[in-house]
Design goal:
Blueprint (H helix, E strand, L loop, with lengths): L20 E14 L2 E8 L2 E7 L5 H9 L5 E10 L14 E12 L16 H6 L1 H4 L3 H23 L3 E2 L17 E3 L7 E3 L5 H9 L4 E9 L11 E10 L3 H19 L9 E4 H8 L12 E3 L1 H4 L5 H8 L3 E7 L7 H13 L6 E6 L2 E3 L10 H8 L6 E7 L1 H19 L9 E5 L4 E4 L4 E4 L9 H4 L13 E6 L2 E8 L4 H10 L4 H14 L7 E4 L3 H8 L30 H6 L10
Parallel strand pairs: 3-5, 6-9, 11-17
Antiparallel strand pairs: 1-2, 1-4, 2-3, 4-5, 7-8, 9-10, 10-22, 12-13, 13-16, 14-15, 14-16, 17-20, 18-19, 20-21, 21-22
Helix pairs in contact: 4-6, 4-16, 7-12, 10-12, 14-15
Length: 590
């Protein structure tokens, strides 16, 4: 093999290499016979080079060339020569040259492909995942893997240049509740005891702050045993960051600088900083979502006060009963068809709305839907909501959160369908002032809205237990183009306050000590104020790659059902292994 080892890659040769003897290694991308002259497009991850077997080449070489099929792995030696000016391919980096083959060695053969490599993205996702090693050969996937690598490198470059230490935390840890189920790992040497895989390095990075590490980061692998839903993966990667002696503003500054650095050096896009800041209540009121796509120009309007005196009973009942009536003005919306409006109503109902009320503002008056209830007050209503001739107005009346969320879903759907959104425009914002607790109706208790180590805002600390639903936390999310890219908070660093939070969440002192004793013990020894954040690497790369699922930017993802189709896992294990672990597998009854 050594004598056929490549001297250059398939994307390296230019006109300056004309006359050189070279060896290329790669895969047969195309093989064409043009009346005695044969052309092979040879591909590796760096590019494609055209190989030519001339008409006067040895018969054995021409015969071998005819046998080469798609994705045969071959070595080609020969002489680089310039193409005639009329045949230069400006779309290829190697388009000015070709390689006149002198020898071809087949390194390995390839069976019939389940899909063409250059058409991999058009194959069914299940097929691509089963043959992921073929899917990854495509230039599309290699471009995304390169982007992921570049983003990771630029992240490290930026943080290390600012004094951060990259520190690995354990993968086998103590099981602690963090919102999702833990993946458990049996400890063979300690029958009946288990490690857990980390849902995040949360407690360990806080311990690192107690240890005086000051500025920490990690490209951290995280694991959550969640039911299959949406665009989630059982294992994922986050850019984990923690800092001591900082405020919320300090963390924002680091992350904004990091994002600007990443986008400049990977996509050549300048991201304006600082990012816009919105409170949770403001973003819900204006956009109906705590992860708004700010590229969409539509905003929700509040119609609650006016609804109290309107003639439409549904609105009046909701407004007088402590709920809200939210409106969405659609410029030029008089052209909406009834089918479109029905589709938007279906989107609203998915988020709890009982229906979607509407009317159109035509030249002759209000038309359609609930128009008859507002004909007499048309002028006042249109002035209040900013409605022009030819516009439509969509309404949801319900509890404040349901009204906002349901109409926010309509806004997002409408924006994607009716506006041209530039995928290379990245509109970041910070969402702040989140509630610290949320009520769990099923279990009749308070749950942490973020996690249980989040610092309450100072004005709420003294009266935490009196009205938990009103308490706001030192919590913040980073949002871009409708996706939550990161979540973080200033942490509790005082054991008495942390114990109060545990009690409010239903943990007895004994249970809190059993689960989190090592953290509470560490807090006895001069813990510094600290905070952090964890941008999702998968989601960030997905957004930059103009994809809509993180499976497109993970080398070996799980399917939506949470399985690996390529290596067929999870799978059963030998009975011997289970006995060594003192475990018995119990299959569910069918």
């Amino acid at each position: 093999m050594k004598e056929m080892q490549r001297t250059h890659t398939c994307g390296a040769l230019t006109g300056a290499d004309a006359g050189k003897k070279v060896i290329l290694n790669g895969w047969v991308h195309r093989n064409r016979d043009h009346g005695g002259i044969q052309f092979i497009n040879l591909r590796d991850r760096y590019g494609i080079t055209q190989v030519v077997v001339d008409e006067d080449a040895p018969e054995t070489l021409k015969a071998l060339t005819k046998t080469l099929k798609f994705e045969y792995c071959v070595a080609v030696s020969g002489t680089v020569r310039k193409r005639p000016d009329s045949m230069v391919n400006a779309d290829m980096t190697t388009g000015a040259i070709e390689l006149a083959a002198e020898t071809i060695t087949v390194l390995s053969e390839c069976e019939t492909l389940p899909f063409m490599i250059d058409e991999a993205s058009e194959a069914k996702e299940e097929l691509r995942m089963k043959y992921r090693y073929l899917d990854l050969r495509s230039f599309s996937m290699q471009r995304k893997m390169r982007l992921r690598q570049d983003v990771t490198f630029r992240t490290r470059e930026y943080l290390v240049s600012r004094g951060f230490y990259e520190i690995e935390t354990p993968t086998l840890i103590k099981s602690t509740p963090e919102g999702a189920r833990d993946f458990l790992v049996p400890a063979r040497l300690y029958p009946g005891k288990f490690f857990a895989l980390p849902q995040s390095p949360q407690l360990y990075k806080q311990i690192l702050m107690v240890s005086g590490m000051d500025k920490y980061f990690q490209i951290a692998r995280c694991y959550r045993d969640e039911d299959a839903r949406g665009d989630r993966q059982l294992e994922f990667t986050q850019i984990d960051i923690e800092m001591s002696f900082v405020s919320q503003d300090d963390i924002f500054g680091v992350v904004e600088g990091m994002m600007a650095h990443i986008f400049t050096h990977t996509l050549g896009i300048k991201v304006p900083i600082p990012f816009e800041r919105l409170t949770y209540h403001e973003t819900m009121n204006r956009y109906g979502s705590d992860k708004p796509d700010l590229r969409i120009s539509l905003e929700l309007k509040d119609f609650t006060e006016s609804a109290k005196t309107c003639g439409f009973g549904v609105f009046k009942t909701a407004a007088e009963g402590g709920g809200a009536v939210k409106a969405l003005v659609v410029p030029g919306g008089s052209s909406l068809t009834r089918k479109q409006i029905d589709d938007y109503e279906a989107a609203a109902k998915l988020y709890g709305a009982k229906g979607l009320a509407w009317f159109k503002n035509a030249e002759s008056g209000l038309e359609g839907g609930i128009a008859k209830f507002f004909q007499d007050t048309r002028e006042e209503v249109c002035r209040e909501l900013g409605v022009s001739a030819g516009d439509a107005v969509l309404f949801v009346a319900d509890s404040w959160k349901t009204a906002c969320t349901a109409l926010g879903a309509v806004r997002s759907k409408m924006g994607r369908e009716l506006q041209t959104l530039n995928p290379q425009e990245f509109k970041f914002c910070w969402i702040v002032d989140f509630p610290l607790f949320e009520w769990n109706e099923d279990e009749k208790k308070w749950d942490p809205a973020h996690h249980m180590f989040t610092m309450p805002q100072e004005q709420f600390i003294a009266t935490l237990e009196q009205n938990p639903g009103e308490v706001k936390g030192e919590v913040y999310d980073l949002v871009c183009n409708g996706y939550e890219l990161a979540s973080g908070s200033i942490r509790i660093h005082q054991a008495p306050l942390q114990e109060r939070i545990f009690t409010m969440l239903g943990f007895s002192k004994e249970e809190a000590r059993r689960r989190f004793g090592f953290l509470l013990e560490a807090f006895k020894y001069g813990p510094p104020p600290h905070g952090g954040i964890a941008p999702g690497l998968d989601r960030l790369v997905m957004l930059m790659a103009e994809e809509t699922t993180i499976r497109e930017v993970i080398a070996f993802p799980k399917s939506t059902a949470g399985v690996s189709l390529m290596d067929d896992c999870p799978s059963e294990v030998d009975e011997k292994q289970l006995k060594e672990l003192h475990i018995r597998a119990i299959k569910p009854e069918t």
